[in-house]
Amino acid sequence: MFATTEAFSSFAVDDMEAARRFYGDTLGIDTESIMDGYLLTLKLHGGARPTMIYTKPDVQPGNATVLNFPVDDLEATVDELASRGVTFERYDGFDHDERGISGGGEDGPRIAWFTDPAGNILALIEERGMA
Fold it and tell me: What positions does the domain VOC occupy (predicted)?
């Protein structure tokens, strides 16, 4: 039924300008504001359809990751984002190093979680652990 549908992902934020600054300036993603600033698209690398961000003033961020960013060098990426003011999350049930990086054992990839200004959970995942 949906095998040929070009689906896309979306999530909400409560402050579109804060989202534009965070995704565009802090993370360096190419963004486009549409519908008089009501929608923001993230033009992610790799030819995937844009991820849509929409405004919802009373948004309640989820408790699961909404967007994952595979990276080659997790430590360098965490350090760079930390220098830009990003704080990394630590969750119960996971061992984290001093940077907030978790995993790397036999059970899965190394990962570091952080949030956007609306509280949506994002993750960095080291590519070599995703095979």
Answer: 1-127
Answer for the pair 74, 110: CB distance below 8 angstroms, yes or no.
yes
d(CA 30, CA 49): 13
How far apart are the C-alpha atoms of 40 and 51, rounded to whole Å?
Answer: 8
Q: How confident is the prediction along the chain (131 residues), in pLDDT tens digits per residue?
A: 888 888 889 999 999 999 999 999 999 999 999 888 789 999 988 777 889 999 998 999 889 999 999 999 999 999 999 999 999 999 998 889 999 999 866 667 899 999 999 999 999 999 765 54
Q: Where are the domains of the chain?
A: 10-129
- What the block records as the tokens of 70 is 């595979």
d(CA 114, CA 124): 8
The DSSP line for 48-82 is PPPEEEEE-TT----SSEEEEEEES-HHHHHHHHH
